[in-house]
Amino acid sequence: MTDSTHNQRRLTAGEILFRMGDEGDAAYIVDSGTLDVYIEHDDGSELLLNEIAQGELVGEMALIDGRKRSASVRARSASMVTRISQAQLQERLERADPVIQLLLASTVERLRQRLEPEVPALAPVETAKGTAGAVARDSAQKRLRLESELDIAVAQEQFVMHYQPIVSLPGGDVAGFEALVRWQHPERGLLPPGAFVQAVEESHLMVDLGRWIMNESSQALVRFQGLADNPLFMGINVSGKQFEDPNFLGYVEALAELAVEPWQVKLEITESLLLTNPHTIEWLERCKELGFSIAIDDFGTGYSSLSYLHKLPSDTLKIDRSFVIAMLGNERSRVIVEFLIQLANGLGMRTVAEGIDDPETLQALIALRCDYVQGFLMARPMPEEKARSVLQQRASLLPS
Predict the structure, then answer these.
(1) pLDDT band at residue 102, thresholds of 50, 70 and 90?
(2) Residue 212: which CATH number?
(3) Are residues 45 and 116 in the same domain?
(4) Average pLDDT in the 358-383 region?
(5) List of residues 6+ apart from 222 with CB closer than 8 A
(6) Which of 62, 97, 132 is the endpoint of a domain?
(7) 163 pLDDT exceeds 50?
């Protein structure tokens, strides 16, 4: 008997929950009682495989790999089970890390192989879920290979830094740079951040790579400053993994010993980091006490509310390029950009508009009194040698 309101089913002693060969359309949590998992042979005999007690799960294998039931399940005593639908489990599997999906699929496959001597062959069911499983498996294997290569890359320092100028308005002088990492892959050549950064940020490697980036970028700032007439700043992206490192603050403190003022090192965080790491504001306040600058990157695209702004010790708002590139053709985007500039000014913060690719957008931002701009129209990210050449020319980077 099934209670449709709570998706529960009562089983009397001896009642069959499902049989070997049935379609795997659900899994079950045992709320009370005991279930037997068994195999039925052609001669009518049975082989008991397992006993499922209260709080345990049964029937999940068929949901994970899309094949038919490899055993039967029967209530040993009066029992109550809660049904978990295929949709419920599949939704969670699709959200899971591909590596976790691979581990689950591999574990289920090994369990089925162990049962093969006892279980009649059951042909796999060709479903869209099976295709999705193959895709997830391929994705997981690629991810694991990538992480293995990144382990070697971090150990061997296969990374290089590029620097994109941030230009002051309205004059067009170089006010600073954003530090952007590249991977000099031994076989695939120079790879952009999109090819590897997410994998790094989700692994233990982010702490070590983050330290290397901060050190390289800060040292480059010292060299850049020797070529400039005005004080420069260096924007360095900081991830949540770095904030979780108990030695993070000590490492940042060491940067204060460089031959530049601490405020010239601008730590950039994203809005979403404010919610994913509850200690972010505390860490930023301590960094601010040491004299470092703080920028909120991609502002307007995260999940935080404006109430965070009065709590954050930030100096700069970086307006996301999605608003900037749309502002000429979309009045709502233009109003948002104008509002953010005015808001930042009212809070005593500077604004950087990202993604400037055309002169018309640039002129609109000058009219709105944006402080700085960054984008391909002025300069692409470049190696240190080229950045040094740009500084030595002492020319405006705005198009004439």
Answers:
(1) confident
(2) 3.20.20.450
(3) yes
(4) 96
(5) 258, 259, 260
(6) 132
(7) yes
